[in-house]
Write a structure and sequence with these properties.
The complex is a heterodimer of chains A (about 400) and B (about 180). By secondary structure, chain A is α/β, with parallel strands linked by helices. Chain A contains 14 helices and 15 strands. Chain B has a six-stranded mixed β-sheet, covered by helices on one side. Chain B has a single domain (about 5-180), classed as Pyruvate-ferredoxin Oxidoreductase, domain 3 (3-Layer(aba) Sandwich), CATH 3.40.920.10. The chains are: A alpha/beta (about 400), B alpha/beta (about 180). Strand 8 (about 175-180) of chain A pairs antiparallel with strand 2 (about 35-40) of chain B, so a sheet runs across the interface.
Chain lengths: ~400, ~180
């Protein structure tokens, strides 16, 4: 059998990927722009195309608690959410990661209130970076489908046993239709092992799960949790290579570098904006400018070594993100800065696209120009240039 | 080169379905790349809806909304304003579902009376596939065969059969007299 092609949205690509992974239990609460994912899965269960228990729940908090309970019985599960829904799950996120429950969840990246907005940015998931989940950000519908399958393989890997959140930019990716290739069920069977959960609740082999710990032992559990996500670094690379061997599509593991090797100026990106930045890189390269783009695919585990390796030649780096940690910087920038703290390179933080604001091609071109100009400035003004810059916001001169 | 097509209709008239069918026709039935997306936001019946299709021989990585289009297809004549002409690229056309051709003097405007034929073939004045057929006849963005294949895949069989007959009727009608 040959892989088939289909013209689908990012949300539909997620649903198709999940269907191929054959989850035993799905529990979800609908929220724009995630809704189509759970609607499609409900239709598949209803039509018999997917044999799965679909639990209708009254909230996101219950959805995550329900799949967590099912998972510890040895079931492969799925849930999906967005924005306020993800925040409502926050308590259970820590239960799942602390309990080492290998869940897979899709999150449609959407702004958080207030002001109320259904449009996209990455402040929802980035504000939960410390919840102990692996976080991956995808660029297009094909990567969305492929990462659902990879996410199960990563989460369920015995060296990892950590939940995975797959993030898609709301609307720009979730609601845009494009052509994807759907792996065959034979390919999926070759790639994705059956879920065998060593820690599952078993009447014949009783265990204590979801327990309390004394102050003496708690930190030991947290150490293990940290080591598990660090282990995920090599597992992620290994699983991506295996996926490529089966489907011919690989994504490069923790980061995806595009023309970074000799680049003087690099923009670091997260998610679907990477596509437009690639276009601008090609355009500027054709004019002889040495520019590149480094897509951070995983925010946890964080690819610090990879970022250092791919930015070795860079003189100035811009970090472009749809996030701000008020009173400091964008969270991606803070993480990148820490990774590069001993490197001789200048960094500028560009905060853009909050609440769904369009990021235009000209704005990307302008960022590369600013990176270039920064290098030529004196040290004093370079220090000043480290301030966070809000793209597309008119700032009074005396505040600049 | 990238072609950008904007569909404009009211919620419920199928503007987004048009953009999706055209995108599928290009990328599943011809060796092209395409993206289709609606103007993002809440969906409300009767409210103006923009939908976009981008088609290119190369992969399309720019997901931003089209600021200028090669073609603007208007399903509901009441949504036409002269300002839309400023959103055309050079050589672009606006194609309006209208029975009043004489009303539009600008040579960038093409009209076709789709409501009447759509009602005849579908039993309701749903003009999205009719206007797609008109667009394809004037521009050859995709072939009529690819368009029909994409309609068959997107719509339910019962609805698709009627729409296919409608598209074939329009192709025969325009094909001879107005092909450019």
């Amino acid at each position: 059998m040959e892989p088939t092609k289909k013209f689908v949205s990012g949300d539909e690509a997620v649903a198709i990927g999940v269907k191929l992974a054959k989850p035993h239990v799905i529990a979800a609460y609908p929220i724009t722009p995630q809704t189509i994912v759970v609607e499609r899965l409900a239709e598949m269960v209803e039509s018999g195309e997917l044999e799965s228990e679909y639990m209708y729940v009254e909230s996101e908090h219950s959805a995550l608690a329900a799949v967590m309970g099912a998972s510890v019985l040895g079931a492969r599960t799925f849930t999906a959410t967005s924005s306020q829904g993800l925040l409502y799950m926050a308590e259970v996120l820590h239960y799942a990661s602390g309990g080492r429950v290998p869940l897979v969840m899709m999150n449609a990246n959407r702004s958080v209130a207030l002001p109320w907005s259904i449009f996209g940015d990455q402040r929802d998931s980035l504000s939960l970076l410390d919840s102990g989940w692996i976080q991956v950000y995808v660029e297009d519908a094909q990567e969305s489908l492929d990462m659902m399958l990879q996410a199960y393989a990563i989460a369920e890997h015995p060296d990892v046993l950590t939940p995975v959140m797959v993030n898609l930019d709301g609307f720009i990716l979730t609601h845009t239709y494009e052509c994807i290739e759907i792996p065959t069920s034979e390919q999926v069977e070759t790639f994705l092992p059956k879920f065998e959960f060593a820690n599952k609740m078993d009447i014949n082999e009783p265990k204590n799960l979801f327990f309390s710990s004394s102050p003496e032992h708690n930190i030991g559990f947290k150490y293990q949790q940290h080591k598990a996500i660090e282990n995920a670094k090599s597992v992620i690379e290994e699983i991506d290579k295996k996926y490529e061997a089966v489907t011919t599509r690989g994504y490069g593991g923790l980061v995806d570098a595009y023309k970074c090797d000799d680049a003087d100026y690099i923009i670091i990106t997260l998610g679907s904006i990477t596509g437009l930045v690639r276009d601008v890189v090609e355009e500027l390269r054709s004019e002889g400018q040495k520019v590149g783009v480094l897509k951070v695919r995983y925010m946890r585990p964080f690819p610090d070594e990879e970022i250092r390796a791919y930015t070795k030649a860079a003189k100035v780096i811009g970090v472009l993100e749809k996030d701000i940690s008020f009173g400091y910087q964008g969270t991606v920038f803070t993480n990148v800065s820490a990774a590069l703290r001993e490197c001789d390179v200048q960094l500028i933080n560009y905060v853009a696209g909050l609440g769904g604001k369009n990021i235009a091609r000209e704005e990307i071109v302008h960022i590369y120009k600013e990176l270039n100009d920064t290098e030529n400035k004196s040290k004093v003004s370079a220090v000043k240039s480290q301030a966070v810059r809000f793209v597309g916001v008119e700032v009074p001169k005396d505040e600049d | 080169m990238m072609l950008e097509i904007t569909f404009l209709g009211r919620g419920g008239q199928g503007a987004f379905t048009s953009s999706r069918i055209l995108g599928a026709a290009a990328s599943l039935h011809e060796k092209k790349h395409s993206l289709s997306f609606p103007s993002f936001g809440p969906e409300r019946r009767g409210a103006p809806v923009f939908a976009y299709t981008k088609i290119s021989d190369e992969p399309i990585r720019d997901r931003s909304q089209s600021s200028k289009s090669d073609y603007i297809v208007i399903l509901d004549e009441s949504l036409y304003t002269d300002a839309l002409l400023l959103k055309l690229k050079e050589g672009g056309k606006v194609i309006i579902n209208s029975a009043q051709d004489a009303k539009y003097e600008d040579d960038k405007i093409i009209t076709f009376e789709a409501s009447h034929v759509a009602t005849e073939f579908l039993g309701a004045p749903i003009t999205n596939t009719a206007m797609l057929a008109v667009l394809v006849c004037y521009t050859n963005i995709v072939s009529i065969e690819s368009l029909i294949s994409a309609i068959n895949e997107d719509l339910s069989h019962r609805v698709a059969v009627k729409n296919q007959k409608l598209v074939q009727y329009i192709a025969a009608k325009i094909g001879g007299e107005a092909h450019v």
